[in-house]
Design a protein that fits this description.
By secondary structure, this protein is an alpha+beta fold. It has helices spanning 14-24, 71-95, 113-117, 138-148; strands at 2-8, 35-44, 48-57, 60-68, 104-111, 125-133, 135-136, 152-157, 163-168, 174-177. The strands form three sheets. It has a four-stranded mixed beta sheet with strand order 1-2-3-4. It is globular and about 60 Å long.
């Protein structure tokens, strides 16, 4: 497991770094593949200790962030949360195996709000990013969205091979947008 620990607005501490590495080593039992973890520890306004982790393993990205008055408590909460996510992911993988491995390439662009507000004929693209969308079931898409802590996820349905969107509703339920033929 590769762990990179970054300190923001605080002194770097070998004791805290070792504590993070020891705690994160617990998650190795859930994923056999190499794991790359980026940890950011920060202090805001001298009283808010925040611990964030982004883990990438086996094509899966997970994020967790916690904030408390104590850095060690924030680290514990962050690791507990990522461990719960991995347990849930591993359980769902036992019950579902995707047979289709076709990926679709999509492009995500960020458009300047001011160019849209001004009504220009061509909106100004601030940044573009291209990535592959792998086929997955709706359940897998919801799980991936939760692991990434996002409010929506675009994915390719593994049965219909159509692009779909799953999103988190304000009432706590999930919505699914499926294209319909003309």
């Amino acid at each position: 497991m590769q762990i990179a620990v970054n300190f923001r607005h605080m002194e770097s501490s070998e004791a805290v770094r070792t504590y993070v590495e020891d705690k994160l080593s617990r998650v190795k039992k859930y994923i056999d593949e190499p794991i790359d973890a980026q940890v950011v520890l920060s202090v805001q306004k001298k009283i808010h200790n925040r611990a964030e982790v982004t883990m990438v393993a086996k094509g899966l990205t997970m994020k967790s962030a916690e904030e408390t008055g104590d850095m060690y408590a924030a680290i514990d909460l962050m690791v507990d949360k990522i461990e719960r996510q991995l347990k849930r992911y591993k359980e769902k993988l036992k019950h579902h195996k995707s047979s289709n491995t076709n990926s679709r390439r999509v492009k995500k662009s960020i458009i300047s709000a001011s160019s849209v507000d001004e009504g220009t004929s061509e909106p100004e693209i601030v940044r573009s990013h291209s990535f592959f969308v792998k086929p997955m079931s709706v359940e897998e898409a919801v799980m991936q969205m939760d692991l990434l802590d996002k409010s929506f996820l675009v994915f390719t349905d593994d049965r219909s091979e159509e692009m779909n969107v799953v999103y988190r509703r304000t009432d706590g339920n999930y919505g699914l947008i499926v294209p319909q033929g003309s």
